[in-house]
Amino acid sequence: MEKRWEMAMQSLSEISISSSSNNEPVTIYGGSENLRCVGVGTDAAVFQFLHTPEYAFKRYADNKFSKIEIEESVYEKIGDSRYFSKCFASYDNYLVLSYEDGITLYDCLLQGIHIPEQVIKDVEDARDYVREKGLNPRDIHLKNILLQNGRAKIIDVSEYVQQGNDFRWEHLKKAYEDYYHLIDSKSVPYWLLETIRKWYNHWNKYASTFDEFMHYVLGNTTFKK
Fold first, then answer.
1. Nearest to residue 173, comparing CAs of 137, 206, 149?
2. Given this model, what pLDDT does residue 143 score?
3. Which of 14, 71, 67, 62 is nearest to 37 (CA)?
4. CA gyration radius for the chain?
5. Rounded distance, CA 168 to CA 175, Å?
6. What molecular function terms (GO) are annotated for this protein (predicted)?
7. Does residue 142 contact residue 135 with C-beta atoms inside 8 Å?
8. Confidence (pLDDT) at 206
9. From 17's CA, which of 95, 105, 125, 209 has a CA 20 to 30 Å away?
10. What is the distance between the alpha carbons of residues 12 and 35, in angstroms, rounded to a whole number?
11. How crowded is residue 222: how many other Cβ atoms within 10 Å of its Cβ?
12. So what's the pLDDT on residue 2?
């Protein structure tokens, strides 16, 4: 019996994805009037099929297909959790996930939408939950956390099998606790967010500690305490 999401397979075959060599977002080639792109990352892009809007299709770049099996195994370990999407199936070049309403924290900053403290608490609880499953919660940042009815939903688990701490969440949490009041409910220009993102990716060029880096950011932007 055909699964409902298989209706999207023809449309998905009409696109291809290419990754960047410098960790920038993927490039999408082709398209279909039945697909809507709802997210773009460095390894994949996510689409919604108009006739089955309850699903999201994570289409990987052509040289990243090996990550599909890994990410599917992570979802299997996570199981049913309110903090994460559900994975229904995997194919050669994409995963079938539950479509999640909401807005990324990155877009919250762009649009001046208040990010409640509950979101931070939810991510902390989600990290504890995946550790209990034997996984390592990494790569948690503004673009893969959704604000969903005042709560957090995490939409990318692809690095949870890797070792080590990238400290992205710890830095984001500290920035929220110490500096978010400066921009709470204010719209932050896209160019400024992208500048800070690029600075952060090489922050050790500007400072020896994250606190020093944040002082650098404050000293070189229009945000003031």
1. 137
2. 92
3. 14
4. 18
5. 11
6. protein serine/threonine kinase activity
7. no
8. 73
9. 105
10. 8
11. 8
12. 62
- Domain definitions of the chain by residue range: 4-98, 103-219
> b or e along 42-55 (b: 16 or more beta carbons within 10 Å of the residue's beta carbon)?
bbbbbbbbeebeeb
Regions in the chain scoring below 70 on pLDDT? 1-2, 222-225
Phi, psi of 56 (to 5 degrees): -120, 140
Q: How far apart are CA 152 and CA 117, in angstroms?
A: 10
Cβ neighbours around 35 below 10 Å, total: 21
Phi-psi region of 23 (alpha: psi -120 to 50; beta: other; left: phi over 0): left
- The pLDDT value given to residue 95: 96
Instruction: Please name the residue that has the structure tokens 């070189």.
Output: 220
The architecture in CATH of the region 4-98 reads: 2-Layer Sandwich (3.30)
Q: How far is CA 77 from CA 15, 17, 22, 60, 209, in A?
A: 30, 27, 31, 21, 35
Q: Are strands 55-60 and 44-49 parallel, antiparallel or unpaired?
A: antiparallel
The sign of the dihedral angle between the CA atoms of 138, 91, 7, 88 is negative
Per-residue b or e along 113-136, where b marks 16 or more CB atoms closer than 10 Å to that residue's CB: eebeeebbebbeebbebbeeeebb
| Phi, psi for residue 105 in degrees, rounded to 5 | -65, -30
CA 87 to chain centroid, in Å, comes to 16
Task: Say whether 103-219 and 4-98 share the same fold.
Answer: no
Tokens in use for 128?
Answer: 């504890």
- Cα 201 to chain centroid distance, Å, stands at 16
Domain 103-219 has CATH 1.10.510: yes
